[in-house]
Amino acid sequence: MHPGAPMPSASRGAVIALPFRWSAPHILLMIAGVLLMAAAIHFVLGRLRLWRDRAVLEERQRLALEMHDTLAQSFAGIGFQLQAMRDELRLSESLRIQADTALEMVRRGHEEAKRSIAALRPGLSGSSGMADALRREAERLSNGGALAIRASIDGQARHLPLNVADTFFRIGQEAISNSIRHAGATRMDISLHFGKDDVALLVKDDGSGFELNAQHQGFGICGMAKRADRIGALFALSSGAGKGTTVTVTAHLSSRPTLPEHARRAVKYLLRTGIHTS
Ligand SMILES: Nc1ncnc2c1ncn2[C@@H]1O[C@H](COP(=O)(O)OP(=O)(O)OP(=O)(O)O)[C@@H](O)[C@H]1O
Ligand SMILES: [Mg+2]
To answer: pLDDT tens digits for 139-183?
Structure first.
């Protein structure tokens, strides 16, 4: 365009809108908004988790009561009747053996029902609740015998997610039951170890131990490994004749993001997707 030429009409007209530019107050406002949003999301997610866990625990308590009043009571009644029949009837040797087998099956069924009821008990998610519940389980199974039972927690104790608490309790129950039934131990240590982002349960006895390559008939060890696998936890059993046995299960604990962490992630995301100042 030469110097004398008229200006294009757009240049001569009034300015309707300037292009938007990010300024410091805008950015501060935006950050405050993001922090507020993160706080709201954090609060709502926390509430939802709480409501869901509370509903699950209430349902479990109802189930535990129902199982106690039906299943466990029936096993106790059947066992009582069978025992009376066995003692009072003049049974042949073969019938006596059959009656004893039936009584043993009822006893195991009753024991299993009690174990399931104990596993439904609320309060396992707290680390001290878990350690106490396992110690009580060991005391109940050892029936006031000479076994010295110790339960401990170390590291920074945290709340356990429901699936981890359930799995640890079930594995703990089986490891304790094995020690009491097979090890002839004098001492049992039940411990929970909290690491930076994992938690481990150890059940250790000083009993007879066993050769790991031997053929094992029961479902217990296999079941413990399967339960751990189902939640992505690591299962380990170390034993040897005369060396005692240690069962270890280790689960990853994803740390629940805190409010500053939510906010930090939100700001990082915005910076990555591009706020440009000029
Ligand atoms: N803590 C232990 N001390 C000594 N021996 C053990 C211990 N734990 C397991 N065992 C041995 O390993 C075997 C297999 O254990 P597992 O729990 O799989 O089956 P079980 O206890 O015999 O039967 P189930 O668990 O099905 O009632 C046991 O029979 C026992 O010989
Ligand atoms: Mg077993």
So the answer is: 988 887 789 999 999 999 888 888 899 899 999 999 999 999 999
- What DSSP designation does 180 have? I
Task: Name residues contacting ligand 1 (CB within 6 A).
Answer: 178-179, 181-183, 205, 207-210, 216-221, 245
Here the CATH number for the domain that contains residue 171 is 3.30.565.10
Question: What residue numbers bound the domain in which 71 lies?
Answer: 23-122
How far, in Å, are 95, 96, 244 from residue 101 at the CA level?
10, 9, 31
118 and 136, same domain (yes or no): no
CA nearest ligand 1 atom 20, residue: 218
Q: Which of 142, 202, 206, 216 to mutate to test the pocket of ligand 1 (most atoms within 8 A of CB)?
A: 216
- Domain end marker among 122, 137, 153: 122
- CA 48/CA 124 separation, integer angstroms: 20
Confidence band for 278, pLDDT divided at 50, 70 and 90: very low
When pLDDT is cut at 50, 70 and 90, the band that residue 277 belongs to is very low
Question: End-to-end distance of the chain based on CA atoms, in angstroms?
Answer: 30
Looking at the structure, do residues 231 and 108 belong to the same domain, yes or no?
no
- Distance (Å) from CA 156 to ligand 2 centroid: 31
Q: What is the pLDDT of residue 229?
A: 95
Instruction: For residue 12, tell me if it sits in a domain.
Output: no
pLDDT tens per residue across span 111-132: 889 888 888 876 777 778 889 8
CA 265–ligand 2 middle distance (angstroms): 47
Tokens representing residue 26 in the block: 């805008």
**Alpha-carbon torsion 150, 156, 159, 163, what sign?**
negative
**Minimum CA distance residue for ligand 1 atom 1:** 179
Residue 80's nearest CA partner among 107, 101, 111 is: 107
Amino acid at 186: T
